[in-house]
Give the backbone structure.
Amino acid sequence: QLQLVESGGGLVQPGGSLRLSCTASGFTLDDYAIGWFRQAPGKEREGVSCINGRRGSTNYADSVKGRFTISRDNAKNTVYLQMNSLKPEDTAVYYCAAGTPFVQAMCVMGDEYDYWGQGTQVTVSS
């Protein structure tokens, strides 16, 4: 059974850092495009970042460029989202998702993802 499990969320002060993990079971992560998404209360889901299959090419939302970094550890079958310089507006439930790798080099954070984790809460507050 294909499963994704997120972890690493929590409460952090503005300017702080967190690293989220997305660990897969039942499939090999680098055979898929992996996306990170977030949803704040009362807001639509927003794509944050993605990494595209074995190419490993990455993409970021403008709102997180320069602050967040997506990476993958194939040995651990885990994708990470390193989040630095966190802001209160980064507060949301963060989800990882898996989908068919994109034919083009750059992945996108849209509706192309088929498998989703349960989410992890990130709260940025003083």
About this structure: The first strand starts at residue 3 and ends at 7. The mean pLDDT is 96.
